[in-house]
From TrEMBL:
Domain annotation Chitin-binding type-3: ranges: 220-267
Name of protein: Cellulose-binding protein
Hydrolase among keywords: yes
Compositionally biased tracts (Low complexity): 179-211
Region Disordered, residue ranges: 173-217
Keyword annotations from UniProtKB, A to Z: Hydrolase, Signal
InterPro entries linked to this entry: CBM5/12, CBM_sf_5/12, Cellulose/chitin-bd_N, GlcNAc_Chitin_IntDeg, Ig_E-set
Any single GO BP term: carbohydrate metabolic process
Top-rank taxon, per record: Bacteria
Xref: Pfam families: CBM_5_12 (PF02839), LPMO_10 (PF03067)
Keyword Hydrolase part of the UniProt annotation: yes
GO molecular function list: carbohydrate binding; hydrolase activity, hydrolyzing O-glycosyl compounds
Organism: Micromonospora craniellae
Gene Ontology CC terms: extracellular region
Length: 267
């Protein structure tokens, strides 16, 4: 009887061991904004990326790599420079935001350009928030650059790798043109009428005040991948309304119903 009981327990232990080995690590994260290469793949901005488009948070490899793919063949598309990765225009500095699906204890965050350590943020093995932002000074690296962002885990020998393509000194998004207010060279001879004259028999029209803010959407816009959401934005997804808890750029497989704790609050 003892032998019959022992074998199933051993077999069960072997199954559990196999599951433990094959299951992915519990810490996951990626740079959402400006979009990393895996975020561009997940949003469909860059196509034919392979499995990374479904799990941009999973570029995990031993610490010490200087590659966008961490040296893992499965993610090698991220190191393919022939893809002409879209680059974001930024000023002399950039604020990068990580989205973490599992908040693993963190040793530090490191940022590299051409193997040069640009910035390092020590976390002291603390547990980070669901989203983490760092502002990095890039004034010594003008022009198009590939910034390697590394999340070094505190209690494992692993790290997560992201490459973000930037044009440093590009000034960020183009500002909206401002109306010119040049002083007139001569005084006008006639003053412009303050209101349009009304024709006989026609009721005067009343213009809506320009300062009135548009009413908020009743249900919020439908959630969509590729959209940059800010804290407080409201979306609808599968008939429910959600409020954004942390600013991020949405990607497929990161719907509000999945990541409610990290990014979305059901209303």
């Amino acid at each position: 009887m003892r032998r019959k009981i022992t074998y199933p327990l051993v077999a069960l232990g072997m199954v559990a061991s196999t599951l433990a080995v094959s299951s992915p690590a519990q810490a996951h994260g990626y740079v959402s904004n400006p979009p990393s290469r895996q975020a561009l793949c997940a949003a469909g901005t860059v196509t034919d990326c392979g499995p990374i488009q479904f799990e941009p948070q999973s570029v995990e490899a031993p610490k010490g790599s200087q590659r966008c793919d961490g040296g893992v063949a499965q993610w090698s598309v991220l190191s393919d420079e022939s893809r002409d990765w879209p680059a974001r225009n930024v000023g002399s500095s950039v604020t990068l935001t990580w989205v973490l699906t599992a908040r693993h204890r963190t040793a530090d965050w490191q940022y590299f350009i051409d193997g040069n350590l640009v910035a390092e943020i020590d976390e002291g093995n603390a547990q980070p928030d669901a989203t983490v932002s760092h502002t990095i000074d890039l004034s010594n690296f003008p022009g198009r650059q590939r910034l390697l962002a590394v999340w070094n885990i505190g209690d494992t020998p692993m790290a997560f790798y992201n490459c973000v393509d930037l044009i440093v000194g590009g000034g960020g998004a183009a500002p909206a043109p401002r109306p010119t207010t040049a002083a007139p060279t001569a005084a006008p001879t006639t003053a412009a009428p303050t209101s349009a004259p009304t024709r006989p028999g026609t009721a005067p029209t009343t213009a809506a005040p320009t300062s009135a803010a548009p009413p908020p959407a009743v249900g919020g816009d439908a959630w969509a991948a590729g959209v940059s959401y800010r804290t407080g934005d409201v979306v609808t997804f599968e008939g429910r309304r959600y409020e954004c808890r942390q600013g991020h750029t949405a990607i497929n497989s990161w719907e509000p119903s999945i990541y409610t704790l990290a990014l979305w609050l059901p209303l």
